[in-house]
Amino acid sequence: MSSSSSSLLLSLSLFLLLSATANAAHPNFIMTIVNNCPYAIWPAIQPNAGHPVLERGGFYLDKLSHRSFPGPQQHWSGRIWARTACSHSNGRFSCATGDCGGRIECAGAGGAAPASLAQFTLHHGGHLDLSSYGVSLVDGFNIPMTVTPHEGKGNCPVVGCRADLLATCPAALQLRSPAGHGHVVGCKSGCEAFGTDELCCRNHYNSPATCRASSYSEFFKHACPATFTYAHDSPSLTHECSSPRELKVIFCH
Length: 253
Known about the structure:
- Helices cover 12% and strands 31% of the residues.
- It is mainly β and 253 residues long.
- The chain has a single domain, classed as Thaumatin (Sandwich), CATH 2.60.110.
- A hairpin with an 8-residue loop joins strand 6 and strand 7.
- About 8% of the residues have low confidence.
């Protein structure tokens, strides 16, 4: 994933879902990945440095099915995305979007852009239970996705992007498979498509004062306002939700 999306995690705890409670984390905390799409996907999970890999980092998930697993009981941060249009060919596994180096189990590796990302920072234990979650289109879009908390305390909204942006993606941002003439399988960010410092919020543009929305990020923002669309984006989604029993990532809600 891009350095822009890595820096985004630093802002999640400032702008999105900051919660505190005197109680410990829910002892039966689980995470669930739901595939409501009419096709199979290969979800992938990448922890941030120093955190454990969950579910070996990736797996197959058939259409209209789900997979639940125990959530981390200690501090954990990382991201979840879906790989699409995956296949085996000549002994090699590969995906049209979100590929993590030709592996079914990503084992901590990141995925190729464009990909819709669910990002989490979960603090458990002691006297605090601080959690944050959000959906980022900083690295582009490949599939509709939302994050839904269940049985949390306080204000616990669903966040994400339900729209299918593949149908409306501007020509300059389209990723097609096969390349050039195939179906649109992803919608690139302006950074991924053009690579300029300004669009990628690099060097001189790597600060809240100089990293600004572009016409490309505004395409994503207009369709899905409750998402992050560029590195220093700060959607007005501040809310409080503590100790959810379950965090559910839903593809094709």
